[in-house]
Amino acid sequence: MSNEINSNEIAQYEAQATRAVDSAQHNIAIRAWEKILSLEPNHVPTLAKVGKFAIGSGDFLSAQRAFQRIAEIDPTNSQHWVNLAIACKGLKDNVGEELAITAALMVDPMDLLSLLMRGSVLERQGKRNKAAAAYGAAATVAPAFHLLHPDLRPSLEYAMQYKDAYDQEFASFLDQHLQVQYDKYHGENLARFRESVDIMVGRKRRFDSQSMMQHYPGLLPIAFFERDQFPWLDGFEDATESIRNEFLNVLSDESGFVPYITYPADAPLNQWAELNNSPDWSAFHLLKQGKVVVENATKCPNTMQLLTTAPQPIQLGRTPSAMFSLLKPNTHIPPHTGVSNIRLVTHLPLIVPEKCRFRVGNEVREWVPGKALVFDDTIEHEAINESDKLRVVLIFDVWHPSLSLAEREMISALAIGSNQFIGEIEDVGL
């Protein structure tokens, strides 16, 4: 019965305190809270109200006592530790603040506010490296800015600016520090090393293979392959003019060209919304999903003959593929990745106006007519034509050179088995 009486009394005092706070009768509210805590010393809702009121009044010592007690009662709630850290900060108790933040992060290592607070206390302690790491972690776990609570936006913006400034200072220091070594090895190919430094200090992103369908382990994610790995490309480059003439003939005929992106109306388009079923990026297919497009191929005999010299992958219903790719003026192919890293993609540029560029991972290149490029399309890539003229590239796929003959035959058999199970040959898209 006494517990029931206490509960009724507590409820009455809680209501009294609420009315007193609403009418700014703070002394009455404080006395009501004191009555509640005399009846139930560990009444968490009242301790929280006392602590928050104390912070608002600048009484950080009372706030610290209240939130310390709450954290001891329920140490599994990270918000209690955050409130204690705020009270400690008001007291300029850096040790207590840091301990409370650590306790909060032990409960929830992904808590954004706790990470921002950790960065702040470390910054005030002059621990720049650790502060930058904490701020960087906060930026990593933060949701999209428009989804973030408005109260947290200034702190997150500051954290990101601090981390960026730190990274830039670190990068400048390393550039100066390494210059002697760069000079020593002038003429050596240090592109990979330079990129590793750029990724480490945040100047560039890390790009890995992101195969949309079949990922083959153990194949290094190389953006652009060295040209000398593909001696058979000599024949294509030497025949650039002949291939271009065949393209110009089919272009004048104005038939056989289709949009490169052709998703049905009920498919989620994501980045392809603007280019879906659009002639701005179109293709004249010679080989599609492993089959010859006879009507088109007969118009390009020289190109088709050359394609027989390339080690094109055999995957029933998927590869090989080959086409003339047309990118109209002021058209951007957005960042995307391909279906499998078992194949590489070859570009033989035929018609390239100025202001055209192509990015794979961190590397941006310009197409040069007659100079082939071979790249891993499972690494994020994009293309842009900012000119007022048409860009045309012959595109075809080839086996990844690291695959053995046995592996290639197993991959071909896998495609046959997959198609038999599915019961039909499906359009696997990009």
Major sheet: 7 strands, antiparallel
Structural class per helix/strand content?
A: alpha+beta
Our measurement of the CA-to-CA distance between the termini, rounded to an integer number of angstroms, reads 73 Å
Order of helices and strands: HHHHHHHHHHHHEEEHHEEEEEEEEH
Helix percent reads: 40-55%
Estimate what percentage of residues fall within beta strands.
5-15%
Overall spatial form: elongated
Could you explain the architecture of this structure?
By secondary structure, the chain is α+β, with helices and mostly antiparallel strands. 48% of the residues lie in helices and 14% in strands. The chain has helices at 2-22, 26-39, 44-56, 60-73, 78-90, 94-107, 112-124, 128-141, 153-184, 191-200, 233-238, 240-253, 294-297, 301-307, 405-422; strands spanning 257-259, 281-288, 291-292, 322-327, 331-336, 343-351, 356-360, 363-365, 373-375, 381-385, 391-399. Strands 1, 2, 3, 4, 6, 9 and 11 form a seven-stranded antiparallel beta sheet that branches. Strands 5-10-7-8 form a four-stranded antiparallel beta sheet, with no helix packed on it. Strand 7 and strand 8 form a beta hairpin. The longest helix is centred in the middle third of the chain and has 32 residues, at 153-184. The radius of gyration is 32 Å and the shape is elongated. The chain starts with a helix and ends in an 8-residue tail after the last helix. Mean pLDDT is 88; it is low at 425-430.
